[in-house]
């Protein structure tokens, strides 16, 4: 007697939930991490299960949300097949990872999106690592538009905000580019570095100071952006928005506050004026970083 592979068994159970109406069109299905937790399987098995459902046209990836039930079981069947090329592979990978996170990416999963074999992908992209590099390159391929701002500080603000926008739009990007000490040889990412250094040129800073300013801004933006990825993954895993999660924690927070062990922190619990928003936090920190750079620039001016 042939034993059904685990990924088909998992796909069958999720299919049953969809067909029974337990999961309606637009509802999120278990993420790859959720599948590993519910069924106790490896990430590769979870990826194959979702890939099988995608091939059937039962699910689709939605950026910022995850994999959801497709509006129609024929949705995939009525979509023209995508041409297999490096550009299309990279674009498909970005769409997938925007929706499900970097952990969901595998050459096998991308192959299912094209109804082809994994080996066929390797003719265009030699490895998963190279695919991630190409994805980051594609994102960095479009810089800020419009004329260059007058003054070094507005110029750095524009570059930093552009970078933050890319991180917010693509939560996986910060982690894929996180190696400050081992940067990737990526021409488009290097163009971002060039623009930042050009903003600092002619201010009297040493080359070391200029590079340190660039890496400080880059590292700061990446650090805040990591929270974007964590929130995106937490939403997929828990099925709750940040606001819904905070509401679910209210009773526990009230119990902690009642201990009177945190007299200063407790003053924040009773006010509705403060709400943590990552974009606001980014702007606050960016201003402080550039204040420090401004002091250094002033100190470099000839007396």
From TrEMBL:
Record-linked InterPro entries = Bact_HTH_transcr_reg (IPR050679), Homeodomain-like_sf (IPR009057), HTH_TetR (IPR001647), Repressor_TetR_C (IPR004111), Tet_transcr_reg_TetR-rel_C_sf (IPR036271), Tscrpt_reg_HTH_GntR (IPR000524), WH-like_DNA-bd_sf (IPR036388), WH_DNA-bd_sf (IPR036390)
DNA-binding region, residue intervals:
106-125
- The answer to whether UniProt assigns keyword Transcription to this entry is yes
Domain called HTH gntR-type: residue spans: 4-72
Q: Which UniProt keywords apply?
A: DNA-binding, Transcription, Transcription regulation
Domain HTH tetR-type, by residue range, is 83-143
Q: Does the keyword Isomerase apply?
A: no
Name the Pfam families on file. Answer: GntR, TetR_C_1, TetR_N
Checking PANTHER family in the record gives: GNTR-FAMILY TRANSCRIPTIONAL REGULATOR, MANNOSYL-D-GLYCERATE TRANSPORT/METABOLISM SYSTEM REPRESSOR MNGR-RELATED
Protein name per the record: TetR/AcrR family transcriptional regulator C-terminal domain-containing protein
């Amino acid at each position: 007697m042939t034993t059904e592979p685990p990924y088909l068994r998992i796909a069958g159970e999720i299919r049953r939930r969809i067909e029974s109406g337990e999961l309606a069109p637009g509802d999120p299905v278990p993420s790859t991490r959720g599948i590993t937790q519910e069924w106790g399987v490896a990430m590769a098995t979870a990826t194959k299960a979702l890939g099988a459902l995608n091939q059937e046209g039962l699910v689709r990836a939605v950026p910022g949300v995850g994999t959801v039930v497709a509006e129609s079981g024929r949705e995939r069947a009525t979509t023209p097949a995508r041409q297999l090329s490096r550009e299309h592979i990279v674009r498909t990978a970005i769409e997938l990872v925007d929706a499900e996170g970097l952990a969901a990416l595998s050459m096998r999963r991308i192959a299912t999106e094209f109804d082809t074999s994994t080996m066929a992908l390797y003719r265009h992209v030699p490895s998963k690592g190279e695919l991630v590099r190409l994805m980051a390159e594609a994102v960095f391929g479009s810089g800020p538009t419009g004329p260059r701002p007058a003054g070094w500080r507005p110029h750095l603000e524009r570059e930093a905000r552009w970078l933050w926008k890319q991180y917010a739009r693509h939560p996986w990007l910060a982690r894929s580019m996180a190696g400050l000490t081992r940067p990737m040889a990526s021409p488009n990412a290097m163009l971002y570095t060039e623009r930042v250094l050009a903003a600092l040129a002619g201010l009297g800073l040493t080359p070391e100071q200029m590079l340190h300013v660039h890496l400080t801004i880059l590292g700061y933006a990446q650090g805040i952006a990591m929270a974007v990825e964590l929130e995106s993954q937490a939403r997929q895993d828990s099925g709750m928005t940040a606001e819904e999660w905070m509401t679910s924690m209210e009773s526990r927070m009230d119990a902690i506050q009642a201990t009177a062990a945190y007299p200063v922190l407790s003053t924040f619990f009773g006010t509705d004026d403060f709400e943590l928003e990552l974009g606001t936090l980014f702007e606050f920190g960016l201003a402080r970083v550039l204040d420090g750079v401004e002091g250094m620039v002033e100190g470099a001016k000839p007396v």
